[in-house]
Amino acid sequence: MKSRDLIGKDVVIWGAGREGLAAQEMLRQLGIVADTVITGGADHAAAMAALQRAEVIVKSPGIPHTAPEYQALRQSGVVFTSLMDLWLSDYGDRTVAVTGTKGKSTTSSMVNHIFNTVGVHAVIGGNLGVPLTTQLGAAAAVVVAEVSSYQAAEVTASPRFGVFTSLYPEHLPWHGDFATYVSDKTNLFAHGCAHLVTATAELRDTLRDALGAAAANTVVTLPSELGLHASAAGISWDGVGSLAAAELQFLGLHNFHNATLALTVCALHPLLQQVPRAALLTALTSFKPLATRLERVPTSDGRRWIDDGLATAPEAVIAALQSCGGSGKTALLFGGAERNLDFGVLRDYLRETRDTASADLTVIAMGPAGQRFAELVGTDFPRLQVADSFAAAVTAARSLTAAGDTILLSPGAPSFNEFKDYEERSAAFKAEARASSQ
């Protein structure tokens, strides 16, 4: 649905978060006066009445498909759209959309950085950056959109270029189950995506299976098919050049893989066909890691304090451990609010590497998720202890480490048991790091 299709309709915005407020302002500039309602509070009955009379509901992404109110409204025949759906319907042809369980923020930021570094004006928005509204449409030649599974679930238009970074179970309470999560995630590319980049042949097969007939006109490209390769040593591009890990400001093999995805979609984009590929590669040397994503916290106590606070799945924790290994000991702060994710993959990793890569690792489990993980691991990994709070976990990590060692916050779980959000938890971690320098 295009934004102009809303003119003359009875439109109601469901949700007053960042996207709901942006939608209200966008509609106002189109001359549309729309009510904004929030369900579940004291005005629930009035909010539901407004939604039931609407011709079109602009739904905020935080409202899940599993909500009874949503299901009842859907069955009644009301038309739903969203800020992301309106954006892609209006500007999908100039959009590079990035989604995936993990890696989407870093990859989309890398794409945006490469475009701007080589002289093609791009802006970034969506789940990262500013909300995507029609006002942004005239701002740049290219818009890089980070798209969450919540945002992807109901779009009816696709970007011209897409990137799919990774896939494993996440946000299951919102989606209901993993099969629905995959369907909702890949729906982003089910409506005419011309070029899609993904990491592996296995992911390409998953995409094709999920998209079915919609994949018939989508060209899916792997970085390796363009001669791009990532290893612990850095990034190489056949016939173009290479970047050693020491030349890059970001850590981790998984981020080197993210970089190959960003380079691939940039190399395929028509606006960059006249730019030497060596320039695309070199642009990555000035890319700085995002906050809370393997971010080195400046301190003077000699320890490496690494904030990977956005790592809220066990697979992301494994990637962080692989990125931060090396000389010295590592104390991992793991756990938080319970979301009942399967931690078996992390337990197996610790068990398989306990005498090699994890030999100098101690896991400090915290929160309900950490407690469950400790019970799951049992004696499989003896260097695990349980702390009764985040502050106690940091204290334990500090006592176990010295100059030259690493304290890694990679929690594999949300923060809501002790903090408002992951940003508040990361701020607390940074404050502890600074306090150690005093």
UniProtKB/TrEMBL annotation:
Enzyme Commission number, as recorded: 6.3.2.9
Main location: cytoplasm
Matching InterPro entries: Mur-like_cat_sf (IPR036565), Mur_ligase_C (IPR004101), Mur_ligase_C_dom_sf (IPR036615), Mur_ligase_cen (IPR013221), MurD (IPR005762)
Catalytic reaction equation(s): UDP-N-acetyl-alpha-D-muramoyl-L-alanine + D-glutamate + ATP = UDP-N-acetyl-alpha-D-muramoyl-L-alanyl-D-glutamate + ADP + phosphate + H(+)
Residue span, Mur ligase central domain: 98-265
Localization annotation: Cytoplasm
Boundaries of every Mur ligase C-terminal domain copy: 293-411
Pathway noted in the entry: Cell wall biogenesis; peptidoglycan biosynthesis
Any matching Pfam family: Mur_ligase_C
Signal peptide limits: none
Superkingdom assignment: Bacteria
GO-annotated molecular function: ATP binding; UDP-N-acetylmuramoylalanine-D-glutamate ligase activity
UniProt keyword annotation of Ubl conjugation present: no
GO BP field: cell division; cell wall organization; peptidoglycan biosynthetic process; regulation of cell shape
Top-level class of the enzyme under EC nomenclature: ligase
Keywords: ATP-binding, Cell cycle, Cell division, Cell shape, Cell wall biogenesis/degradation, Cytoplasm, Ligase, Nucleotide-binding, Peptidoglycan synthesis
Residues given in the record as ATP binding sites: G100, T101, K102, G103, K104, S105, T106
Family that this chain belongs to: Belongs to the MurCDEF family.
Descriptive protein name: UDP-N-acetylmuramoylalanine--D-glutamate ligase
UniProt source species: Canibacter oris
Taxon lineage: Bacteria, Bacillati, Actinomycetota, Actinomycetes, Micrococcales
Protein encoded by which gene: murD
